[in-house]
Amino acid sequence: MGLSDRRFVFLDIESTGGSIAEDRITEIGLLTVDDGEVTREWSSLINPQRNIPSFIAGYIGITDEMVADAPKFGDIAESLQEMLKGRILVAHNARFDYSFLRHEFRLVDRFYHSEVLCTVKLSRRLFPHFKKHNLDTLIARHKLPCEARHRAFGDAKVLWDFIQLAATEQDELQVDKEISGLVQPLDVPPGLSVDAFDDLPETAGVYLFWDQQDAALLVGKAKNIRAKVLAQLAAGSGNRRVTELREAVGKVEWLETVGIVGAELEEGRLVDELRPPMNSSPAVSNTETSQLVTDDQGRLQIQFVPAEHIAEQQPCYGLFRNRDDARKSIQAAVNKQPFCTVNSGFDGLVCPVHGTEQRLDKDSELQTDAGIETSSEICPSSDDIELSNTQLEMALIRLKQPDWPFAGPAALTEQQSWPERKRVHLFDCWQYLGFVEQPEAVFEKLEQASSAEFDLGIYRLLKRLLEVPKTAAGFIPVNVQGEQP
Ligand SMILES: [Zn+2]
């Protein structure tokens, strides 16, 4: 099979924006190519039945006035479907055009499904030594003529020129081989239809697998939802988990998040909410930390407090699943920097200097029966309060949880280039305040976000991001009084 044995439709759409759910198509341009010959050129403005935002109109050149008398999608749906039928859909970032078309067809009760060839991917495969593969770059690099850039037919025509040129510059059989690799049929698990995979986007986000009884099976995050979902369900991997998942899955859903941090935040929220059996269980909710408090004699005492105290800007030491876990960690810390722990206020510690186990509960029958003596009888009690306070603080430094490194809230912006989207995530004192899509909306959001809750998953995520200089640099402190981030 060669290029000349295939049926293609090269297509481009313009729209009122990048959201498939909310935006509508304003123009479609296409050319059908059968057996290596252009058989049809067609383009039409489409009345999107809503306003075209001015920045989109300015960029693409399609205005409300231009589409006012144009046909609606429903008016051209039948003839369009006829042109698409039986042909591989070829587009630049093809998933986007494909999903947009499917959505528009669905709105007029039509179903559209086809093989899809993305020319970004094809260009990457054919010219792997180049880094950029956006349409402007392709046009410049290969000196492709384009009469109407950003208009649907002009952009679609460039793609056909690109493939012809690649077939001449390189070997036609090679081009055809790469195309075969890219339009490989999907390998669909028994409980799903091909349709279930059709709209999976190639953007960052979370995906959810449900079983055939609509119970959540697995939640995951991905930089590329489509690639990850297909990989997770790929037959023949020999992985038992994959086999189990393939047999059980009855539905796949997803949520786009713009970036991987956003995906991780959503993943944590969904795992907490749904507790899917194939996810490892999240951190136990009763996790504790410890703080040092001064008793009436001025001695520092270890006191256990719920982990949310980490958000309160007081030094916190350790993060413990339970008291026994706490005892082990604190014991290890004091052993590394031995001092007499008689006055530390923590039941069950063995003094690293005198070897005695501390029991504060002196009246307990059980302890006297067991023959354990109270530490105060064996450890010579120290009167140097200053010294033992310092020793305790020094020993616990190893367990100290980091301070929130900003004077107030901080913003982390994630963006995606195609479709162009932005999300500004807002955090304060290790807590997530939510996100906005426009930097201008940050202050309003901060005013509203009064009752954030401490979440261990988010705390751990932030700690991890802030530990690495490269990711930490993405956090920008928000000056609540002054300028924008
Ligand atoms: Zn001691």
Overview of the structural elements:
It is a single chain. The chain has helices spanning 54-60, 64-67, 73-84, 94-107, 119-126, 135-141, 152-169, 172-182, 195-198, 225-232, 240-248, 260-274, 323-336, 365-370, 375-378, 385-396, 442-448, 456-467, 469-472, and strands spanning 7-15, 25-34, 37-45, 88-91, 116-118, 205-211, 216-222, 249-256, 288-294, 300-306, 317-320, 410-416, 421-428, 431-436, 475-477. The chain is built from 19 helices and 15 strands. Helix 5 (119-126) packs across helix 8 (172-182) and helix 7 packs across helix 8. With 485 residues, the chain is of the alpha+beta class. The radius of gyration is 31 Å and the shape is elongated. The protein has 4 domains: 3-182, 2-Layer Sandwich (Nucleotidyltransferase, domain 5); 195-274, 3-Layer(aba) Sandwich (GIY-YIG endonuclease), CATH 3.40.1440.10; 288-399, no CATH class; 410-477, no CATH class. Residues 362-376 have low confidence and may be disordered. Helices cover 36% and strands 20% of the residues. A 5-stranded mixed beta sheet has the order 3-2-1-4-5, with helices on both faces. Strands 14-13-12-15 form a 4-stranded antiparallel beta sheet, sandwiched between helices. It has a 3-stranded antiparallel beta sheet with strand order 7-6-8. The site of zinc ion has 6 residues, from loops.
In short, what is this structure?
The chain is an alpha+beta fold. Helices cover 36% and strands 20% of the residues.
Rg, Cα atoms, Å: 31 Å
Classified in CATH, the superfamily of the largest domain is: Ribonuclease H-like superfamily/Ribonuclease H
Helix % is 25-40%
CATH topology description of the largest domain: Nucleotidyltransferase, domain 5
The largest sheet is: 5 strands, mixed
- The poorly predicted ranges are 362-376
Instruction: Give the helix tally.
Output: 19
